[in-house]
Design a protein that fits this description.
The structure is a single chain. The protein is α/β, with parallel strands linked by helices and 435 residues long. It has 13 helices and 15 strands. The strands form two sheets. Strands 9-8-10-11-7-12-13-14-15 form a nine-stranded mixed sheet, with helices on both faces. The protein is elongated and about 85 Å long. The termini are far apart.
Length: 435
């Protein structure tokens, strides 16, 4: 059992020595250490601090840590400085999907089979939990993200790709939700293997990406939208230049240069304490169009950026991908209209429908179902794929793949642009599609 109070004390000693070295380097006119060099240097400081601690224990007539205990302490100190502290064991567990923290000692962990347990505390106090989140916000993302009374909300991507959302001040205790990322480099074949989709849908989506169709992925929270987005993006040819736009970096397409060597990742920048310097998603989407993109990928549409994105899709930036929260494939059109009405442009519903009809090609809806309480398991799967076919006072669409008797989407109606897909290898008849 690790003594977390001891970890905090030793971590402070390491941080103090690291700060001293940074100041000495600056005074000597030396360039700052790279991130990797600093981590390696910190490992040597951890060894020094542990040796000092062992000598102090012996001098005080106490038993020093065993080699096994010392190794555990070293790992905990390193995690406290560069990782996620006492959350690290949970994130290292491949079975963990979600971690919901309602105060330092109310930690609910959801596993991949659908069951949930109350886990051990991740901090000794709520103040320590806030301090942990503040440390993560200072080092994750492209810019430091504050978490305090003036900035009580925080969204960021952890070093392992997991997504963290934290709030304070608007609830009785600080609340943190972490969604673990288990499929980083993911392909459509992986999603066929785990039951997310059938082979025929994978063939269809592969051809739709190659044919540069604009695709919106819809679903509820934690339905697997981002995972599917990554898989679709990995079907894009490596010579294409991709620009991603996100509130907090999480898609991670640029992390695999062997698949996508030419990627620019934009992240929303929050305003400072004076309300200045903020750069929102709508502005970033506009900026992305001036950066010579082959395709623009918007991680998640939640507001007025929808107008800019649809305009981009309809003005020659074909092959764009994005995700949106919705309860069905049909509801996506109403959700887009709601966002458009709330935008700066205050676009009326009729104009929004025209924009959607001219921009979107397909809406893919994902369903999350948890049957653990009934003896089943947690599952995510594609339930519906809808093709946008035109406009007649409203957006016209056809459900080309719909839920079948086996509980998975099957071919349901003819595809209007099937000729475009056939040019890229899709064959509905040979692949079991609509006949």
């Amino acid at each position: 059992m690790i003594d977390h109070g001891l970890v905090r004390r030793l971590r402070s000693g390491v941080a103090e020595r690291l700060g001293d070295q940074r100041r000495r380097d600056a005074a000597a006119g030396l360039a700052p250490m790279s991130t990797e060099d600093e981590r390696e240097y910190t490992r040597s400081l951890i060894i020094q601090v542990l040796e000092d601690h062992a000598r102090a224990e012996i001098a005080g007539g106490r038993t020093p840590p065993s080699p096994e205990e010392e190794a555990a302490l070293a790992g905990a100190i390193h995690s406290a400085l560069f990782g996620v502290g006492r959350l690290q064991p949970l994130l290292d567990d491949p079975r963990v999907e979600n971690i919901d923290i309602n105060g330092c000692d109310q930690v609910f962990v959801s596993y991949s089979d659908g069951h949930e347990v109350l886990a051990d505390p991740v901090a000794d106090s709520d103040d320590e939990l806030i301090e942990l989140v503040q440390l993560l916000g200072a080092h994750a993302g492209l810019t430091s993200r504050p978490f305090d009374s003036a900035n009580p909300q925080l969204d960021l991507r952890l070093p392992d790709g997991s997504r963290l959302s934290a709030v304070m001040g608007v609830c009785q205790r600080p609340s943190v939700s972490i969604r673990a990322t288990r499929l980083g480099k993911v392909f459509l074949s992986d999603l066929v293997g785990n039951g997310t989709m059938t082979e025929e849908i994978a063939d269809f989506l592969r051809a739709a990406v190659a044919a540069r169709k604009n695709i919106m992925i819809a679903g509820s929270t934690n339905a697997g939208k981002t995972t599917l987005l990554r898989a679709l993006a990995n079907e894009i040819r490596p010579e294409e230049r991709l620009i991603t736009v996100e509130r907090a970096l999480e898609v991670g397409i640029g992390e695999f240069p062997d698949i996508h060597p030419n990627v620019v990742s934009f992240e929303e920048r929050l305003p400072n304490s004076e309300g200045l310097g903020g750069i929102g998603l709508a502005e970033l989407v506009r900026r992305s169009l001036r950066m010579n993109p082959s395709r623009v990928i918007v991680g998640e549409v939640l507001g007025d950026e929808i107008i800019t994105m649809l305009n981009a899709m309809s003005q020659g930036n074909d092959g764009s991908l994005s995700t949106i929260h919705a309860n069905s494939s049909m509801e996506v059109f109403n959700r887009i209209s709601t966002y458009a009405i709330q935008s700066v442009e205050r676009l009326p519903i009729e104009a929004t429908h025209m924009l959607v009809a001219g921009a979107l090609n397909f809406v893919v809806f994902m369903r999350r179902r948890n049957d653990f309480g009934r003896g089943g398991v947690l599952s995510r799967y594609i339930e519906s794929i809808r093709e946008v076919t035109g406009i007649d006072g409203r957006v016209l669409s056809s459900e080309v793949f719909a839920l079948g008797p086996a509980g998975r989407a099957v071919a349901h109606a003819p595809i209007g642009c099937v000729a475009d897909l056939e040019e890229h290898g899709y064959s509905p008849r040979s692949n079991g599609g609509w006949r």
